[in-house]
Structures are given as structure tokens and as C-alpha cells.
């Protein structure tokens, strides 16, 4: 069997991915290999490495999803959720099948995705999880006020979208030194599995019919990225819980905007663009 591994380089609002299809043969990834592929100087370069794997099958042999998606940060760690990558993989699978909807299995659960036109995909990202144990936190806390902080980043809201987020509301998101503060908060002892750190600034009043929120992110295991889909979901939920926003808002990220809605049943709907940058074949040295 060929040892060549074709890849597709995709992105959602500049949050970029190397996507590998391991549905028909096994791919032997290690944290070292992931870091080598993700390295922007010597590898392909990406924020997350995404593997499409076969769907899980039940005892009767039928599958509940179209495919499984495995997600790895550029530091080699595996994570349960990635909103922007889910839209990208959904677009690939829908183009392949000709269908306008798809079900993707992730470590965080089954996600339903739908095409919303040319290069626009909506994903039901599942329930926003609000209990301290689900984030998880190291100790019992009201997740609406975690009470920690450094500099301008104080008293975040804690949310899990399948991955942990701490959303800090600030007056001016663009002036926050995320390169310095992000890693300190990511590794705060309150977060035993670390956390993604969001600096969010309200651009509309609480009673606006549609909210607008500026958000910048320091991603766990990756660093600053142009956009974070789960971070955008967490930001809208945090703002709605604090009474700062209606339950639907445009989240303005460095790479563009996502529309996020916190539905009455607690699920979070994310709608945004996908793009393919280029494709190629991995240099075999990256997998050796
Ligand atoms: N870019 C992603 C989130 C990727 C995972 C995150 N860094 C984590 O460690 O939880 C997104 O679009 O949601």
C-alpha cells in the first residue's frame, strides 16, 4: 500500500488546518509528528491537524455519523472540539457526497452540519456546558464569575463547548496583550485541563435585536489564532448569561465574523465560511 499521505489545507476565517483522510487506512500519528506537520517553518504549518476517520458503527453494523473527526492542536495534544474545523470537514464531506447535510462524530459528541450556500456552513455545536465539573474547574465555583484575573483580564465566565473556555469582558479587546497574558491564564491552576482564553468587547447594547461582539483568542495548545469557532460560541453564551447580549450575535474575530445563536434548547448554532487554501502530499519525513 502507498505510504503517500495527501492532505488538504483549509481554513475557517484564517484559523487553519491540515486535513488528512484516514478513512480507508490507518495513520500512525504521534505528538512529535503532529508538531512536525504543524510547524510553519519546516512542515506544512497549521493551527490544528485534523484527521477524518471512519464513522463508529453500532452493534447492528450501522453508523450514526458520516465520519469521525479527530482534532490535534499544533503542540501535539488531542482535543475534543474545534468549531472552524468542523465546518471545513463538513464542507469536504458534503462536496464528496453531494448532500447538503452531514453528521460528524467528535470526542465532544455528534454534530449536525448543513450547507448554507456557497462556502457557508452551519453547525449545531451541541450544548453549552455551564457546570464547573464539565469545564472542568479544579474546585466548585459559580461559572458566571470565576473570580480570577491578571491585568485587564478579570473575572471570566467559564463555559465548555466540549473544550474549556474562559471569556473575559474588556473595554478594548484590541489593546489586550494576549501574547503575555494568554499563556498565564491558559495554565491557571483553576483549569486542570488548561483553557482557551477569550478577550471579548461588547459593540452593541444589551437590548440590541442582534448582538455584535469583538473577540480575540489565545487558544490552548496553539496560541493566538485568527478565529476560534468554539471560542465564538462560548463568548456569545457568556455574554447572554451576563445579560450583555441577546442570544444571537455576530462575533467579530481577527479573520472575519461568525454568526452564533444560543438556541432555547441550550444548543449553540454556529454559521460561517470555509475555504480551501491548497492541497498536496505530505513529505514522508514528516511521518518518520
Ligand atoms: N480553533 C478551534 C479550537 C481548537 C481547540 C482548542 N485550541 C482547544 O485546545 O480546546 C475552534 O475553531 O473551535
How would you describe this protein?
The chain is of the alpha+beta class and 288 residues long. The chain starts with 5 loop residues before the first strand and ends in a 7-residue tail after the last strand. The chain has helices spanning 31-38, 83-97, 178-186, 229-241, and strands spanning 6-12, 15-21, 48-53, 67-73, 78-79, 101-106, 109-115, 120-127, 149-150, 153-154, 157-160, 164-169, 196-202, 211-219, 223-225, 248-253, 256-262, 267-273, 275-281. The model has no long low-confidence stretch (mean pLDDT 97). It has a 17-stranded mixed sheet that branches. The protein has two domains: 6-126 and 274-287, Roll (Diaminopimelate Epimerase, Chain A, domain 1), CATH 3.10.310.10; 129-265, Diaminopimelate Epimerase, Chain A, domain 1, CATH 3.10.310. The structure holds the ligand N[C@@H](CCC[C@H](N)C(=O)O)C(=O)O. Ligand LBFN2T5F is lined by residues 15, 47-48, 73, 79, 82-84, 163, 196, 219-222, 225, 228-230. The ligand N[C@@H](CCC[C@H](N)C(=O)O)C(=O)O binds at residues 15, 47-48, 73, 79, 82-84, 163, 196, 219-222, 225, 228-230.
Amino acid at each position: 500500500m502507498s505510504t503517500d499521505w495527501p492532505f488538504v489545507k483549509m481554513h475557517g476565517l484564517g484559523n487553519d488546518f491540515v486535513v488528512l483522510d484516514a478513512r480507508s487506512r490507518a495513520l500512525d500519528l504521534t505528538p512529535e509528528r503532529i508538531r512536525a506537520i504543524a510547524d510553519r517553518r519546516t512542515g506544512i504549518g497549521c493551527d490544528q491537524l485534523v484527521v477524518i476517520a471512519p464513522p463508529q458503527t453500532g452493534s447492528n453494523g450501522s453508523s450514526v455519523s458520516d465520519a469521525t473527526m479527530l482534532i490535534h492542536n499544533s503542540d501535539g495534544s488531542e482535543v475534543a472540539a474545534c468549531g472552524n474545523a468542523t465546518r471545513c470537514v463538513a464542507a469536504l464531506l458534503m462536496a464528496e457526497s453531494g448532500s447538503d447535510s452531514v453528521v460528524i462524530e467528535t470526542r465532544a459528541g455528534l454534530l449536525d452540519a448543513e450547507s448554507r450556500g456557497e462556502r457557508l456552513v452551519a453547525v449545531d455545536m451541541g450544548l453549552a456546558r455551564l457546570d464547573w465539573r464539565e469545564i472542568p474547574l479544579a474546585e466548585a465555583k459559580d461559572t458566571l464569575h470565576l473570580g480570577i484575573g491578571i491585568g485587564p483580564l478579570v473575572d471570566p465566565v467559564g463555559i465548555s463547548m466540549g473544550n474549556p473556555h474562559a471569556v473575559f469582558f474588556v473595554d478594548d479587546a484590541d489593546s489586550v496583550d494576549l501574547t503575555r497574558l494568554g499563556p498565564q491564564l491558559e495554565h491557571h491552576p483553576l483549569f486542570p485541563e488548561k483553557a482557551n482564553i477569550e478577550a471579548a468587547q461588547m459593540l452593541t447594547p444589551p437590548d440590541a435585536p442582534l448582538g455584535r461582539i469583538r473577540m480575540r483568542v489565545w487558544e490552548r495548545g496553539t496560541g493566538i489564532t485568527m478565529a476560534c469557532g468554539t471560542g465564538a460560541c462560548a463568548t456569545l453564551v457568556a455574554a447572554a448569561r451576563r445579560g450583555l447580549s441577546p442570544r444571537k450575535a455576530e462575533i467579530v474575530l481577527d479573520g472575519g465574523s461568525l454568526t452564533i445563536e444560543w438556541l432555547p434548547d441550550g444548543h449553540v448554532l454556529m454559521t460561517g465560511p470555509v475555504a480551501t487554501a491548497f492541497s498536496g502530499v505530505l513529505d514522508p519525513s514528516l511521518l518518520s
